[in-house]
Amino acid sequence: MATSTGRTFQPLPDPADVCAQVRDRLALLDGLPLPGSGGTTLRWLGFADLAREDLSLARIAEGHADGRAILAELDRSDLAGPRSLLGVWAAEPAALQAVRTSTGWRLTGSKRWCSGSHGLDLALVTASAEDGPRLFAIDPSATAVQAGSWQPMGMARTDSHQLLFDSVEVDDDAAVGGPNSYVRRPGFGHGGCGVAACWWGGALGVIDGLHQAVVTGAEEAASALGRAVADLTATGHALRATAMTVDERPDDLALSVRLAAEIRVAVERAARSALDRTVAALGAAGLCQDPVHSGRVADLTVYLSQLHRARAEADLGQHAAVRTLEIVW
Fold this sequence. Notes:
CATH superfamily of the largest domain: Butyryl-CoA Dehydrogenase, subunit A, domain 3
CATH topology of the largest domain: Butyryl-CoA Dehydrogenase, subunit A, domain 3
Oligomer: single chain
Order of helices and strands: HHHHEEEEEEEEHHHHH
CATH class of the largest domain: Mainly Alpha
Shape: globular
Number of helices: 9
Distance between the termini: 19 Å
Strand content: 15-25%
CATH architecture of the largest domain: Up-down Bundle
Radius of gyration: 20 Å
């Protein structure tokens, strides 16, 4: 595997300001290669290492890095200072409406899954405008938290509340690109692949507990560990191959969307299999007596649920049906 199987991790921190922990690593994150720049493998390995350490940390870090990549691709890096912590809040653009004003735009509605709700300096949010979906750079402090909207079983420290936009005014310069520019760029698919790298790293963190159990004599867990290692090694190779393809054809929008669909389905299946096998092998004792292990299980369970597998597989099948079927190995 790309990350060391012998690495020992410290217990996860108490629920606190994960954003502050990401701020401590901004120099490292901003030094990661942009997707498609020739170092995409290093970028995704960076995400995977963070996810193996702490999935909540990786979620905020990946969002920041994706925000930087979006601004670079849309030629708007001027919107974020060198020490700014960024996030991307792109779920359900129809729930947030953007209306032109004499000086810019007025945003009204709500936005779900806003990771880093209280700790970001700048958020990139999608909203529906008369001319189509648009992306805006906003100050998160201009929004309000929907009470009770974030009570998760895992990933709690990502602070992913639903936020309310009560006629939030932004100037015209806050519009990033034009209508549909957020999705009509190769980086849209590249960003989806980066999330898959986080899932993969999170699965490695979960099976670290399984590995430790086998090392200390739980021979009955060896089979589960072996299967998990085989599955995650195979998808690790797939992630690397995908990164190499992104670097070879960085401007191919259709390819980037297809690659994201394929690798997300593949990694989710392997990660969920590793998760299920680990939970079954370590049993109730692992979930009830080991807070580090149970925390990682809960975090990965929530994070993987971001993908609606049946819908993603159906979309992938429909896409494959309209072209000559080609399976690359």
